[in-house]
Design brief:
By secondary structure, this protein is mainly alpha-helical. It has helices at 29-54, 60-68, 70-83, 95-104, 121-138, 142-163, 169-197, 206-239, 242-266; strands at 6-9, 12-15, 111-113, 117-119.
């Protein structure tokens, strides 16, 4: 994607990684065709292929072939879905197919949407990352770029809170917190971008920039450090055999009482 990321300098567009190379030349058609001819369909295969595999509509061999040749297989699946001409695979299930399905759905739930059907969340997460990279690559205006990325992240957070795709509840909560942190960082950088672009005229922008940097440092440095320290402390405390210590203390107390009984009898 770095070969497609262009920026404007003066009145000409040049590559971001090398300001001496002009953009939109013939050689860029190769990376452009690779991104939109293989990467984008591959993300679609990861989104819809596992659901078709679990539904016994495609075989394991077809799924793996579709990862190498995504356009023809994805087009075939779309046509079959529109025509509703799917044929169920045989009832026999191989060990290979079971292992592939377990690997694809080991972390995520089986999610089925009304108008789309079964969706694998691995493909959805890949689509999210790829879409953010597309926005970053092809949007040159800083404020517009941050606005689009922030809006998309908010929509994805809403979808995540509705579906809760992870099997583990803690993973769902942690991912929600990470998305909220990303949105907070986007808002902070959005304020800075507005000030840099001069969309709002403020005489002294230094205090605002310092507050933005302070919030960014807290979110990116101190919050993760504190979370890791707290998690490590709790994990270490869980390994301490508290129950055995209680039993040991209880046994010591019983031994002391038993030792005191003969003394009382002698008295």
């Amino acid at each position: 994607m770095s070969l497609l990321h262009c920026v404007k300098i003066s009145q000409s567009s040049v590559l971001h990684i090398d300001g001496t190379i002009e953009c939109y030349q013939l050689w860029q058609s190769g990376p452009f065709a690779f991104v939109f001819g293989w990467v984008v369909p591959f993300v679609g295969v990861l989104m819809f292929g596992p659901g078709l595999l679990v539904g016994r509509k495609i075989s394991v061999s077809e799924f793996f072939l579709s990862c190498f040749l995504p356009i023809p297989f994805l087009s075939r699946w779309i046509v079959k879905s529109v025509q509703k001409s799917w044929r169920q695979q045989g009832p026999e299930i191989t060990q290979w197919q079971i292992e592939v399905e377990d690997e694809l759905h080991k972390t995520y739930k089986n999610i089925s949407l009304k108008y789309v059907g079964s969706v694998c969340w691995i493909g959805v997460t890949k689509f999210r990352r790829f879409f953010l990279v597309i926005i970053f690559t092809f949007t040159q205006n800083l404020v517009l770029r941050l606005g689009l990325m922030l809006s998309f992240t908010v929509l994805f957070l809403c979808l995540h809170l509705i579906l809760y795709p992870y099997r583990d509840k803690r993973a769902n909560r942690l991912f929600s917190v990470s998305l909220l942190a990303t949105i907070l960082l986007g808002l902070v950088n959005g304020v800075r971008a507005v000030l840099v672009e001069g969309l709002i005229e403020i005489e002294n922008t230094k205090p605002i920039v310092e507050v933005c940097e302070f919030i960014q440092n807290i979110v990116m440095i101190w919050v993760p450090v504190c979370a890791i320290a707290l998690g490590g402390t709790l994990k270490c405390l869980r390994k301490v055999p508290w129950q055995k210590m209680k039993c040991y203390k209880h046994q010591e107390g019983e031994q002391i009482e038993l030792q005191q009984i003969p003394d009382r009898m002698s008295v």
